[in-house]
Amino acid sequence: MSAAPGIHARLQLARADFVLDVDLQLPGDGVTALFGPSGCGKTTCLRAIAGLERARGAVHVNGDVWQDDARRTWVPTHRRALGYVFQEASLFAHLTVQRNIEYGWKRLPAAQRRVSLEHAVELLGLSALLARMPQLLSGGERQRVAIARALGASPRVLLMDEPLAALDAARKAEVLPYLERLQRELRIPMLYVTHSADEVARLATHLVLLRAGRVLAQGAPAALMARLDLPLATGDGAAALVHGRVQAWDAQDHLLTVGFAGGRLHVTTPHARAVGEEARLRVLARDVSLARSPPQATSVLNVLPACIVQIAPDAPGQVMVRLDAGGTALMARITVRSQRELGLAEGETVFAQVKGVALAD
Ligand SMILES: Nc1ncnc2c1ncn2[C@@H]1O[C@H](COP(=O)(O)OP(=O)(O)OP(=O)(O)O)[C@@H](O)[C@H]1O
């Protein structure tokens, strides 16, 4: 394996009824989501990268060699510059928020400190909570403290194991913007384990799909989400991810217009966004219907001409249709009857009516 930038992890490990065998070549920045069903080995991967689990193989992180069996190199976990955030924030109950955050930072030689405590506190919005004891924090606040504490160790990578899974929807919505901000401002690569397609759509810049201890597929989230042969593109949560830029904001109607290769989509949102800003949109396959001719006098604002690329069976009575709208993938989940009655087949042009679209970022 090379010492080049990027995260390379070749890991092999056998348990009684589970084998992990992966060769991960991940970007050295951004958020890599590890996604897959329960028991597929996501946590085991993170733990092996951290050195908490002894797998055979090698782990290189942006030039640092943490493990390389061929060279008999093994760096113990406490010497790996990493931050680990668990599902449940495991804060020290007898220490204030401030002391919790200082914990890793104080143990680090000054020359190795790349993230200041003030910056970590500011990034996670914790300045008003520094004197509190952990028992008096909400779940979302606790998780923000855990993340700030992980940053105190000036990590070369942040390993996040379902950091939002224990939180309710409101708390998730509270913590997510902090994760995005962290990513934008500190640019520390994150390996992010999740079960949630929402979190993948919102955060991930690279996606690894795991199944039964192996890599099923990896690549750009938008590309993998629209692959009908992969599990993300089945069922109710199947969605396309559309990358574009804000073209206009109509304050009166709270309507944002986002342009992308293939057209533009209007999305209602309470908050203004600046023209020119990047935007990610999530379009659920169940919110897209298809018509043979341009619909007239419809309440649907978004109608895009598109070409049918592929039709695959979905739930009983349903098919998933992959569309190409000028180079951007969309998906529509329609009934088998509609497909038959409209005579829809691969290679044909249709009009996609997008009934719902949401900002994913
Ligand atoms: N300490 C352990 N001892 C033995 N088997 C384990 C241990 N930890 C996990 N396993 C098994 O290893 C496999 C992979 O577990 P892992 O926790 O990595 O999966 P996961 O994808 O993270 O699952 P989840 O999404 O449920 O957290 C599972 O079959 C699990 O039962």
UniProtKB/TrEMBL annotation:
Return the InterPro entries for the record.
AAA+_ATPase, ABC_transporter-like_ATP-bd, ABC_transporter-like_CS, Mo/tungstate-bd_C_term_dom, ModC_ABC_ATP-bd, Molybdenum_import_ModC, Mop_domain, P-loop_NTPase
Q: Where is the Mop domain?
A: 297-361
Q: Which UniProt keywords apply?
A: ATP-binding, Cell inner membrane, Cell membrane, Membrane, Molybdenum, Nucleotide-binding, Translocase, Transport
Q: Name one GO cellular component term.
A: membrane
**Gene3D superfamilies according to UniProt:** 2.40.50.100, P-loop containing nucleotide triphosphate hydrolases (3.40.50.300)
Which terms in the Gene Ontology molecular function aspect does this entry carry? Answer: ABC-type transporter activity; ATP binding; ATP hydrolysis activity; molybdate ion transmembrane transporter activity
Q: Where is the ABC transporter domain?
A: 2-237
This protein's source sits in the domain of life called Bacteria
Q: Which PANTHER family match?
A: ABC TRANSPORTER I FAMILY MEMBER 10 (PTHR43514), MOLYBDENUM IMPORT ATP-BINDING PROTEIN MODC 2 (PTHR43514:SF10)
Q: What is this protein called?
A: Molybdenum ABC transporter ATP-binding protein
What organism is recorded for this protein? Pulveribacter suum
Q: What is the lineage of its organism?
A: Bacteria, Pseudomonadati, Pseudomonadota, Betaproteobacteria, Burkholderiales
